[in-house]
Known about the structure:
By secondary structure, the chain is an alpha/beta fold. The chain contains eleven helices and eight strands. It has a six-stranded parallel beta sheet with strand order 3-2-1-6-7-8. The protein has a two-stranded antiparallel sheet with strand order 4-5. It starts with a strand and ends with a strand. The model has no long low-confidence stretch (mean pLDDT 93).
Amino acid sequence: MTASYFDVDGTLVSSNLMHTAVWYMANDINPLRSAKQLGRLLLRAPQLLVAELTDRRAFNELLFEAFRGTPEDRLHVLADEAFEWCMRSNIYDGARDIVSRAKDLGHEVVFVSGALDFLLARLATELGADHYVGNRLEIHDGQATGKLLRPVVAGPNKSRLIANHARDNGHELAECFGYSDSYSDVPMLSVVGRPAVINPDPKLLRLARTYQWPIIELT
């Protein structure tokens, strides 16, 4: 048995991590707190942009600071709505088919994403994935601290998490498939024997053409 490892944001859905953060901030139970959170995020925008381009792990950690002080029960009470707005309504039309084809071939389908784990759980159910690996918020005294539990699911860490999953589940990495849209996921794509790109950004597209990786367009 082999596995297909899928990035999520930009690969299977058109939304990204920023959508989730903004949605939760905009739906805080206290409108004044919402305004303050959104204001802080706006002030942090230049720093986030630099991190997104240079260090995806740092980007994740900066972005999820926005959840500091959010009650854990509110995160989960709003999770169905958040999933609907941030993910389900943004699933690419071809995403179900590509996941279904992998399942038909007998692959274990695994989502590996910087998205929050409880939202990935819902996406995995929606698309029929077998497993998911996502970021987890640190919770203290019933509230999110604004920190992520280790390991942060981003950049090179994705390749290590995939290698660990393959080892623990008896998959040969040389026979596994990997899918992503982002150049930041080159380590993830390089660790599997059969990488492919979906809706690739310009740098990843050039690399895919150089190495003749399959290029898939989803809408």
